[in-house]
Amino acid sequence: MAAAALRDLPPELAALGDLALDLRWTWSDEADALWQRLDAGSWEATLNPWTLLQDVAPQKLAALVADPAFTADLARLAEARRTYLGMPGWFATTYGEAALRRVAYFSMEFGVGEALPLYAGGLGVLAGDYLKTASDLGVPVIGIGLLYSEGYFRQYIDAAGWQREAYPSNDPGSLPIRPALGPDGGRLRIPFDLPGRRLMLRVWQAQVGRVSLYLLDANDPINRPADRAITERLYNANPETQLLQDMVLGVAGWRIVEAIAPDTEICHLNEGHTAFVVLERARCFQRRSGLTFWEALWATRAGNVFTTHTPVDTGAGRFSTSMIAAYARHLDRFLDDVGVPLADLLALGRVDPNDADEPSIWPIWRCAGRRAASASAASMGR
Predict the structure, then answer these.
(1) pLDDT tens-digit profile of 356-367?
(2) Reported pTM
(3) Which ranges constitute the DSSP H helices of 47-157?
């Protein structure tokens, strides 16, 4: 689906847009020679065919149209992609009607490839491999994350031998993504209430083979300048920004699922930054079912899976009671909606739920552990 292209391609080369937007090229090198023929230097520098398509000269495109070897290779690759997407995959073939309807995978970072720099290291690379494997196996997964305008820092050594950090800007027009569309066919935006104002989050879609990755973006001119920075950097050092990112990923992320994949059965949370998904999922189920919040939390817990890479307190995000309360009271009237006192909600994030002075810890093994512990927590030996 090349609707996000910033330029018109000759009809004979239209399939290039589909190939460039499908991040399957990050783990399948069958199209590498094709991208090198567009611009070998740019391909080596960026490993991003989407950028190549935006920059290649019209004269070069015209020459490729007249090159029967190139158009034949393009047709072959386009057909191979259609075949790949049309195959049911091992999962559906093996499990048939017993297969899952949908898994929503939440992660603060996704390392799909260098052309989509939304990761810091191993955690993100694992999340990217999760999506790629799901695509190859045909597991019905969607990914939910954040689109960072700068992402994680790049290290370099200055003239004096000191390590320095740089934050390159991520221009959405240069990334292999496209605006996500809602059920009405318009651009999908997710509203998110903050104290005294409303944040509108744009949603972008990256195609990872058979899997769609949806990315929330606060950097929209419709938002206040300070709010646009919420999704600026991965692992921001400011605790308030960390809390906002966790809320956006969990709460607004689940609202994406409600909007485009309401048949989702399993919610897979990768690390504790995604913990607010548990609360928003329970709230949405509570509204549909008429249950109490605690009943909804228990009813949805069987479908929550959690994996962690830092199962120690030093890897946990700690937020003061006053900071959480300031936002919880304005989060779409969350407390009034679920009918739960703030103290009870904060107790979910504490080691000692009766210690009102203890900062809340929001990894999912704390947040959901007392009332809605996922089955995977037991498998981790907790």
Answers:
(1) 777 665 544 444
(2) 0.90
(3) 49-55, 58-65, 68-86, 89-95, 122-137
